[in-house]
């Protein structure tokens, strides 16, 4: 089931964001679960699509997107 919102003739699909409840409020070093899963120092403020997990800070998200590399290993040559 999807939730659809129409505003000014524009269609928006509403999605649940996993982890957003842990990111609300202030952030300090004692707040486990609110930090970026990459750098582990900045608050998580970026959601990964399509899984909808809020687990990265914006700087790490930009770096990961620019630095992705798929590696295919041929296991038949062994």
Present the secondary structure layout.
Elements (H helix, E strand, L loop, with lengths): L2 E5 L2 E5 L5 H4 L22 E3 L4 E4 L1 H9 L12
Antiparallel strand pairs: 1-2, 3-4
Describe this structure in words.
This protein is of the alpha+beta class and 78 residues long. The protein has a domain at 16-69: Herpes Virus-1 (2-Layer Sandwich). The chain is 17% helix and 22% strand. The protein is built from two helices and four strands. The strands form two sheets. A two-stranded antiparallel ribbon has the order 1-2. The protein has a two-stranded antiparallel sheet with strand order 3-4. The chain is extended. The mean pLDDT is 81.
Radius of gyration: 17 Å
Helix content: 10-25%
Name the average pLDDT. Answer: 81
The sequence of SSEs as H and E is EEHEEH
Gross morphology: extended
Classify the secondary structure makeup into a structural class. Answer: alpha+beta
Q: Low-confidence spans: pLDDT under 50, at least 5 residues?
A: none
| Strand portion | 15-25%
Distance between the termini: 47 Å
Supply the CATH class of the domain at 16-69. Answer: Alpha Beta
Number of helices: 2
Would you identify the CATH architecture of the domain at 16-69? 2-Layer Sandwich
Read across the widest sheet, the strand sequence of neighbours is 1-2
CATH topology of the domain at 16-69: Herpes Virus-1
The biggest beta sheet is recorded as: 2 strands, antiparallel
**Quaternary class:** single chain
């Amino acid at each position: 089931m999807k939730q659809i919102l129409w505003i000014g003739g524009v269609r928006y699909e509403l999605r649940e964001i996993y982890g957003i409840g842990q990111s609300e409020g202030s952030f300090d070093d004692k707040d486990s679960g609110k930090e970026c899963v990459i750098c582990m120092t900045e608050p998580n403020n970026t959601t990964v699509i399509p899984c909808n997990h809020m687990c990265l800070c914006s700087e790490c998200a930009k770096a990961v997107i620019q630095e992705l590399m798929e590696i295919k290993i041929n296991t038949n040559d062994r």
